[in-house]
Amino acid sequence: MNDTTRPATIRVFIALAPPDEAKDELARALAPAYAAYPGMRWNRIEDWHITLAFLGELPVATVPLLHAPLAELAAARRPLTLSLRGGGHFDSRVLWSGIAGDVPGLHRLADEVRTLVKETGIPYEGRPLRPHLTLARARRGDLAGVPGAAGVLDGFAGRSWPAARLHLVGSDDARGPAPVRYRDIDSWPFTGA
Fold first, then answer.
1. How far is CA 89 from CA 48, 92, 98, 151, 191, in A?
2. Which tens digit of pLDDT belongs to each residue from 13-68?
3. Are the C-beta atoms of residues 143 and 93 closer than 8 Å to each other?
4. Residue among 54, 61, 151, 153 at smallest CA distance from 98
5. pTM across the whole model
């Protein structure tokens, strides 16, 4: 099959996003790490999110199947109260901030989202949820920065906030040094009683 007949695709995930105040608070705590490790690939603050289900590359025509079920799910649920807490790293390559608050509720929401995805007929074989907010990635050959930057977040405890919306997010497929860019395909408020 050549490129002209291949269907258009988009990388898709379902997520929660901290409010700007919580992200700004974390960014201030990260200031020493930004200064000490400028060579890391820092995620843009506007792209910080908590992934509930990463769906990968999907045909663009498939994505609308998710809209109504996600809207219904959001309408039936109350906002979760969460906060950003501490930090750590995966394999000295990925820097993250932890999630505190209603973590059991976050797991239940992720389970519901993942079940919904499967029920729409979209194949999903995700990994177990490890609630976190990805902040940066190490550049090749420089694995010292991420553990050092994680130490800056020792003892960080951000304010609590309501996770007010469920987001269906698309990303470009940046390769190389360019950062990945995210955009909301759609989002729905949690309005359950």
1. 16, 6, 10, 10, 34
2. 999 999 999 999 999 999 999 999 998 999 999 999 999 999 999 999 999 999 99
3. yes
4. 153
5. 0.89
